[in-house]
C-alpha cells in the first residue's frame, strides 16, 4: 500500500510539472503572426469582392469617393436601377473595421 501511495504521489508531481511547463510554454509563446492584416484583407477581398470588382478593383469602384461613404456602401449595400446589387455585408457579419480595411485595400490595388 505504501508503494502505491509513493507511486501516486510521484505521478501527481510529474503531472503537475508537465502542466506547469505546458502553461509556461503557452503563455510565453509569441503571438501568431503567420498572416498580416493586409493578408487577411486581401483574402477577404478575394472571397467577397473580386467576383464583381475584379482582381484590381477595376470594375464598379470609384476610388475618388470619400472613404466614409465607401465604407457605408460596403456595410449597407446599394440597390441600383438594375442588377447586380451591392450586398449589405454588415448583415453578413462584416465589421466597420473590416469594411474600412477593404476600402483601403481596393484603393491600393486599383490602377491609376
Question: Summed up, what is this model?
Answer:
This protein has helices at 2-28, 37-48, 50-53, 67-76, 96-109.
Q: What is the helix tally? A: 5
Instruction: Specify the structural class.
Output: mainly alpha
Alpha carbon gap, first and last residue:
83 Å
Instruction: Give Rg in angstroms.
Output: 26 Å
Question: Care to describe what's here?
Answer:
The chain is mainly alpha-helical. It has two domains: 1-30; 37-109, Cytochrome c-like domain (Cytochrome Bc1 Complex, Chain D, domain 2). The protein has helices at residues 2-28, 37-48, 50-53, 67-76, 96-109. The chain is rod-shaped and about 85 Å long. The termini are far apart.
Name the features:
mainly alpha; 2 domains; 5 helices; about 110 residues
Question: Can you lay out the helices and strands and say which pair or pack?
Answer:
Blueprint: H1 2-28, H2 37-48, H3 50-53, H4 67-76, H5 96-109
Helix pairs in contact: 2-5, 4-5
